[in-house]
Fold this protein.
Amino acid sequence: MGIKIDSNSFIGALDKAFNLLSTENKVSQVITINPEMYAEAEINPDFKKILDEAEMVVPDGVGIKIALKLKGYNVERIPGIDFARSILDWCAKNNKPVAIVGAKEEIITKAVKNLKNETENLNIVYYHNGYFDNDNEIYEELKNAEPRLVLVALGSPKQEFFIHKAKQILSPCLMIGIGGSLDVWSGEIKRAPKIYQKLGLEWLYRTVTQPERFKRIFPALPKFLWKVITYKKGK
Ligand code: UDP
């Protein structure tokens, strides 16, 4: 359907990310795609271009996993929040500095505190809340901090646009859009119980416990799957 998605396992995708992180002179963007982002790419050519240019696009939403299955590809779902957490652990172990941008001030402050408490040797060299007017100021501060991993939580597609522009400005690093992960890491929002995660029903739990998400997420999934089922190549 015009979007390339990595078919690595969770471990394989992590390996690829670690390689990118360890490559000198490489600025890369990882996108964790879900059906809402597919819908955005359909109506927004600039966003589609960002997806095309990303170094990695991994299947986050269960809708993407089902879509690939319908087309005969059996891929492992890679929840962005778990993926980003594993990369943070790796950075702590491998002495790679980290920067985090996004969420409300009290949320990012709590999340950074929790992450530091939970992760030995985690080196967070910069963080900033996600409510700023001047992107250039943030780019400048990020550039000066020289992180190797940059996590950006501004919601999609804002975070993907922010990262795409940052690729032209920052020194070599790996950047990932992490949506609402800081809200979870701060302890403000609870993740779905493990059983929902296992069954790929985390979206259901989140839409029920955060009804404002329902309107946004719920219609996107059946619409997307219908598109997948009726899609003909070359259309
Ligand atoms: N956010 C932000 N700046 C903005 C808009 C959103 O920092 O201008 C943050 C918001 O506070 C939340 C995250 O971005 O922490 C978006 O989370 P959401 O749950 O909408 O993301 P999703 O996981 O659905 O992509």
